[in-house]
Design brief:
By secondary structure, the protein is of the alpha+beta class. Helices cover about 20% and strands about 30% of the residues. About 30% of the residues are buried.
Amino acid sequence: MFPILPERPTDAAQIDTLLDLTFGSERTKKTVYRLRENVGHLKPLAFVVRDEDGVVLGSIRYWPVAIGEQASPAIMLGPVAVHPDYQGQGIGRALIRHSLYAATRLGHRLCILVGDKPYYEPFGFVNAADRGMEMPGWVERERFQVMELAAGALKDVSGMVGKPPRGKRKAA
């Protein structure tokens, strides 16, 4: 297995190429990308896997979001991508485990995502719509998921997911 390393600023171009390869260039038209516009990703939660030549084989990032009228802070996982030639080897799962652990250590309490239920359910994600949360655009209900990173974090949290308040949009 390849080591999981912090993302470097010089990885950005390779990550964009990887995301296009993995999800296609139409990916930026999805609802989650509206939540990412003009919001920096959380650099302490940005990790990559590189091969021995420094080529990025896998990447994961998180973004700050706010939920409901009370603007409850949360993080949004995604995208997580693995080069097609290396998929099925556990790189994506390792990136998720590593980053969720880091998010918990940094004090984040809630994590949302839009992704395949069978893939994310083993990590502890549950349906977010069933807990009273909504996305600001169309997403498949069963793909909208949430996970408590701290016990009780979902208590009294519901409503529309949106961008964090202006002062909290910069990359940390």
